[in-house]
Amino acid sequence: MKEKEILERATEAFANETGLRTRIWPAPADQLRADALLDVLVDNRTVRFLAEIKAVDRFQTLGTIKAKGEHAPHPLILVAPYITAVTAQQCRALRLPFMDEAGNAYIEAPGLFVYITGKRRPVQTRITPAYRALTPAGLRIVFALLNRPVLANAPYRDIAKAARVALGTVGDVLMDLEHRGHLAPEKPGPRRLLAPRRLQEEWITHYPIKLRPKLNARRFTAPKNDWWRDQDVRQHNAYWGGEVAAAKITGYLKPATATVYLQGKPDALILANRLRPDANGEVELLDAFWTPDTPRQADDVAPPLVIYADLMATADPRNVETAKLIHDQYLATTDGATRPPG
């Protein structure tokens, strides 16, 4: 599905539901990589937005989209094939405008308020087929490249080892990255990441949808809320993720949930902390998908990119605020690579 087609169908549905006209303009190159400029015509004035068009209908990283437009000259509006009622509520909580092909929309601006939800998904709406780099194995490879950009020019075998994937998957993923402008070709060479910040944003968007669900997640309840404070997870070959990791490296957040990534079996950790299985528990255990030598800010926490993605996936305003600190301190380097400890 083409982004232009999504935008045209969404604005048409918006006009049908609200009676408001819109105008679409090409986005200037300096507009934070916006896909288009979108004007909403209200009486005798124009409300301008930067359109962020997403050809998906599931959003675990609304905070990432919201943060992208923080310093933009115009507010960002999410345009998508379909926005569910739950996602609409999250967008409103984040004050993130949106519109979709069904006519669902949320816009809040001086003299203008639109909030429409519950419209059914249009028959023609389909999710775009996944690119090779956006499969679970592909996201593992991209993560390895973002953390160690020198791997881009390494032999396939080294890339596969660092990403913990089968050797045969590497070539197709690198070809996909090359075709979509994320990777410079081997000839004339050397292979290297192009615009890694854009690739980083793509990884953050798709990690909670494609890779995280494959990490054997299990939920538990702990005997007390602050059980994690005196717990050294390194003895269990584990790392803190999410809110606890964020609290440890920023000192800014009071964790309400605990996320733990493990390199091995969780049995010893579960027994030592008397964790009780609970489908709605505040403790989540997942398999670690990176190698132990991946750069991290401390021995007992996950890599910053994982912590950031965990926080942004919650769409919780307090987590999003903390995620911004992590991004600015550890992820916003010149080349987009994770900043090493120290």
UniProtKB/TrEMBL annotation:
Pfam families assigned to the protein according to its UniProt record, in alphabetical order: AbiEi_2 (PF09952)
InterPro entries: AbiEi_2 (IPR019238)
Domain of life assignment: Bacteria
Name of the featured protein: Transcriptional regulator, AbiEi antitoxin, Type IV TA system
Species of provenance: Aromatoleum tolulyticum
